[in-house]
Amino acid sequence: MWALLAAPGAFWLVALFAVPFYAIAAVAFGYTDPVFNAPVPEWDPRYWDFTAFSEILTRSVSGDLRPVFLRTLLYVALALGLCVAIGYPVAYYVARHAGRRRALLLGLILAPWWVNYLTRMLAWLNLLQDDGYVNDLLLLTRLVDEPVRWLSGNPVTVVLALVYGYVPFFIVPLFATLDRIDPLLLEAARDLGCSGRRAFWHVTLPLSRPGLLTASAITALPMFGDYYTNTLVSGSPTTTMIANQIEFYLLGGTRKELGASLVLLLSALLMALMVYYLISSRRAEEVVS
Amino acid sequence: MRRRPWVLASVTWAYVVWSLAPILVAIQFSFNDGRSRSTWQGFSLQWYFGSSGSVAEDPSLRLALVNSLVVAGLTTLIATPLGVATALGLSRWRGRTGRVVGGLTLLPLATPEIVMGSALYLVFTNLYLFVPLGQPAQVIGHVTFSVSYVVVIVRSRLASIGTDYEEAARDLGCSRLTAVRLILLPLLTPAVFAGAMIVFASSMDDFVISAFLSPDASSVTVPIKLYSSVRNAPTPALNALATLLVLASLVALLLGWLAQRRGSLHEDTDHERDQDKNSPGHGHVNRLAVGSGKGDTHPHRGGDTERQPQEAEHPTNPLH
Which pLDDT value is given to residue B3? Predict the structure, then answer.
C-alpha cells in the first residue's frame, strides 16, 4: 500500500526527469534526415551516431570552443575565489562574534535568498549605467577621469556579477558549519597554549572544511550553467561562457544535436566535479569526526 | 574580555550593504517620476498604474505577472500533493526499489538548471509531442524540479514525528488509514504548508526552465520579461515589476513562517529542539536543499534558521 502512494511521484520522476535526460543523448547521437536535412533523434543506442559529439569534442579540445571552456573555468574559479574571500569572513563573524546583533545579521545575509536573481541583476544594471550611481561615485572621488563602461563586454563586471549573484548561497551553508563548531574545542586549544591565529589554523579551518566544500559545490554548479548573468551584464562574444553556447545552439540555431552534445559534455564535467566533491567531503567529514 | 574583531565586523557590514543596497536603489527607482533608471527625478507611482507604460496598463507586463501567478499556482497545486504522497510512501517503503526512488527524488536538487531545462525542452519537442511548449510544459517542468523540495521537507518532518503517535492510535483501535488521517496528516500540516510556499516561491523565481519551455510571447513570465526587456528598452516599470516580485516573495515567506510557528506552538518545544539538532534528517535538508543549485529558495524559508539565534542565546547545553 505504501509503495502505491509513492508510485505517482516515482512515475513522474522517471517520465519527466530520467527520460528527458535520455532525450539529450538521443538528440546528441541522432542522425541528420537526408530528405529534410533536419536532425532526427535516435532512441535506439545501437544506431547512435557520434559525428556531432566528436565535432563538439574536437572543437572543445583544439577549436573555437576551447577558449570558451577555458574562459568558463577561469571566470568560475575567480568568482569562487572571491566568494571564499568575502564569504568566509562574513560567515565566521556572524557565527562567532556577532553577539547581540546575530539575529539581525542572520536575517540580512539571508535576505538576498528571497529576492529573485534577475531582480538582483537588474539592480546592478541600474547602478552600472554609464551615468549610474557607481560611475557618479567613482568620478566624485576622482578614482577615474571618465565613466567606466561596465556593461559592454567587461570581464570584470561578469566575474563580479557572478560573485554578487551566488555569494549568498555560499555564505549560508558555510555559516551553518561554522556555527556547529563547538566553542569548547577552541577554548581547549587556547588552554593548551595556541595563539588565536594558531587555533584558527589548526581547529576552526579544518573543522569548517566540509562546509567550505559544500558551499563551493553549491555555488560552482549553477555558475557553470549560468548564461543569463553573462548576457545581462555583458552580452558580448568576448565574454561568452559555455552555457551561452548551449543556449545558442539549443534555442537559437537549427543544429540542436550540437547543443545536446555540449550539454552532455558539460554534464560530464560537472559529474566529475560532483564525484570529487563527494569524495573529498567524505574525507573532510572523517577528519571532523 | 575579548578584543573586538573590527576587521571582520567591517567586512561583514560592508558585505551587507553591498548585497542589499542595490536592491533598495532598484526599488527606489520604481517610484521615479521619469523614464530614467539611473537619475532620480522625484516620487511618483506612474510605473505601477495610471500611465500607459505602467505594470497595470502595459499588456505585456500584466500578462507576465498573470502568467507567473498561474504557473506558480498550478505548480503548487500539483507538486504539493504529489510530493506529500511520495514522501509518505517512501518513509514506509523498505527495500531496494524504495531506496532507488528515494535517490531519484534527490537528483533534481543536484542538477544544474540548464541541464534540466535542455532535457525538458528536448523531450517535449521530440518525444512528448502531445505536451505543447508554453504554459503546460512550464507547469510540468516546474513540478519536476520543485516536487523534491516537498519530498525532502515532509520526509524530514516524518522522521522527527516518528511512529509512536500513529502506533498509539492503532492500539486504540484506529484502522491504518484512519490513523494516517487523524494523527499523521494534522501533524504534517505545517511541513506541507511550508513545502507549498517554497514550491510557489521557487516557481515564481524560476527563469531558466521557464525560458527554455517558452516558445513565444504568450507564455512569458516575470523573470523572462525582466531578462528580455533589460537589453531592449528598459523603463522604471521593470523596477516596479521586480518590486512586486520581491513583495510576493515576502508574503510567501511570511505565510510559511506563520505556518511553521503555528505548527511548532502545538509541539513540545524541547522535543523539537532536540530533533533539530540531532536528527540526521534535518542535516539532510540543509545539505541537499541548499545544494540544489536552484539558488533562490530553500527549505529554510520555513523559519528554521531564524530559530537558531534564539538557541544560541538560551543555550540548553547541559554542561552549562
Answer: 59
Please list every residue in chain A whose beta carbon sits closer than 8 Å to the beta carbon of residue B219. none
**Number of structural domains, chain B?**
1
Give, in order, the Cα–Cα distances in Å from B16 to each of A94, B13, B246: 11, 5, 18
> Does the beta-carbon distance from A222 to B295 stay under 8 Å?
yes
Chain A residues whose CB is inside 8 A of the B282 CB are none
Q: How many residues does chain B have?
A: 320
In a domain, B126, yes or no: yes
Question: How far is Cα B253 from Cα B200, in angstroms, rounded to an integer?
Answer: 10
Whether B296 shows a pLDDT value over 70: the answer reads: no
Q: Do A3 and B296 touch (CB under 8 A)?
A: no
The verdict on residue B312 lying in a domain is no
Residues of A in contact with B72 (CB under 8 A): none
- Average pLDDT estimate for B127-155: 91
Residues on chain B touching A114 (C-beta within 8 angstroms):
201, 246, 249-250, 253, 296, 301
Residues 6 or more apart whose Cβ sits within 8 Å of residue B77: none
State which H helix or E strand residue B201 sits in. Answer: helix B185-205
Residues B226, A117: C-beta atoms closer than 8 Å: no
CATH classification of the domain holding B283 = 1.10.3720.10
Domain, as residue range, for B267? 46-293
Nearest CA-CA distance, residue B295 and chain A, Å: 7
Which residue of chain B has the CA closest to A132?
B38
Write out pLDDT tens, residues A145-160: 888 888 888 889 999 9
- Look at B231 and A231 and tell me if their CB atoms are within 8 Å: yes
| Residue B212 CA neighbour count, 13 Å, CB half | 30
CA distance A152 to B52: 30
For the ranges A83-97, A171-185, B227-241, which has the lowest average pLDDT?
B227-241
pTM, 2 dp: 0.82
Whether residues B97 and A231 touch (CB distance < 8 A) is answered with no
Question: What number is the ipTM of this complex?
Answer: 0.87
Residues of B in contact with A258 (CB under 8 A): none
**Backbone φ and ψ of A40, nearest 5°:** -125, 130
Lowest mean pLDDT among A109-113, B54-58, B262-266: B262-266
Q: Nearest residue on chain B to A234, judged by CA atoms?
A: B231
pLDDT at B288 over 60: no
Residue B299 within any structural domain of the chain: no
Kindly report, residue by residue over B80-131, the tens digit of the pLDDT: 999 999 998 888 777 777 788 888 888 888 888 999 999 999 999 888 888 8
Residue B263 is predicted with a pLDDT of 64
Beta-carbon separation of B38 and A129 below 8 A: yes
> 3-state DSSP: chain A helix, strand, coil percent, rounded to 5?
80, 0, 20
Give the Cα separation of B210 and B140 in Å (integer): 10
Q: Which of A56, A113, A129, A169 to mutate to test the interface with B (most CBs of B within 10 A)?
A: A113
Domains of chain A and any CATH numbers: 50-288 (1.10.3720.10)
> Which of A257-261, B197-201, B261-265, B285-289 bottoms out in mean pLDDT, i.e. has the lowest?
B285-289
Does B21 fall in a domain?
no
